[in-house]
Structures
1.
Amino acid sequence: MRALAFALLAALVLPLAACGDDQSAPPPPRPLDPDALAYFCGMVVADHPGPKGQIILTDRDEPIWFSSVRDAIAFTLSPSEPRNIAAFYVNDMTDTNWNKPGPDTWIDARRAWYVIGSDRRGGMGAPEAIPFKEKASAEAFAAAHGGRVATLDAMPRDYILEVPDAMPERMGGATGAQDD
């Protein structure tokens, strides 16, 4: 009788526990749609160099796209934007083509290491927060391109939210067209 009661209890509890696990797992990153438009500027995301961002909200099936990581982070800091973020992904720029980050380079933005203040410009020609999966890769990039390494939580709000004094004349800045 005790075995039957245990089996019945397990049959009821285990599916509920599994259901809870599925709900807590963030949705996976989506492949970049070649026609995806950037949230803030309405331009085609794939047309811009540098790392991109995608944010998936709990009440939307499709991600919100960003042509730069800096724009994606600004979205999360803005009090006027939704707070129901289910997942936040950025391109890992380790061994990635600057002009066309690969479709399988998405990493969790909250666990990434970022280089800020480097000589590289993001998708809209502004200073960028360049993400890396591993701290050592971020440090190597900073050694080659300047800047410093920061986590998302330690990133200065001013770096993300302030408008640069002088935007480059052409998209991507002087170094935006490189393939490293």
2.
Amino acid sequence: MNNIYYKKGYKYQLKKDYQIQLINISCEDIETEYISLSKDGILLIRKGYAWDGPSGPALDTKSFMRGSLIHDALYQLIRLEKLSKEYRLIADLELKRICIEDGMNKIFAKIVYIYVRIFAEPFIDPSIEHEIEIAP
């Protein structure tokens, strides 16, 4: 019998490459299987990338999906130690900016920002990268 190898914790999978110009990013070029970040702040998330959408008590609304995708990708680059922990603030600010851009109420976006600033720091820890599961 052949085993399958998978990771838990994901709800969504990107079906087309997505690219965005980020603000206040200055780093060396980064390349992973699913994420590229250029030194001039162009983030490319490739088709097949999986993420869990908005976390906590937040609802998975259209105004939150793109922000959650970008935020999760940036946090993953921090967990993988491709970006330093100082980029967490930039990731959190980008989440707020993109959610507002996508139609989220500014007050709710500020609450989302405060929430991630208070509670999301553990999610940049390299030790929490999803482990590979095997079945059966």
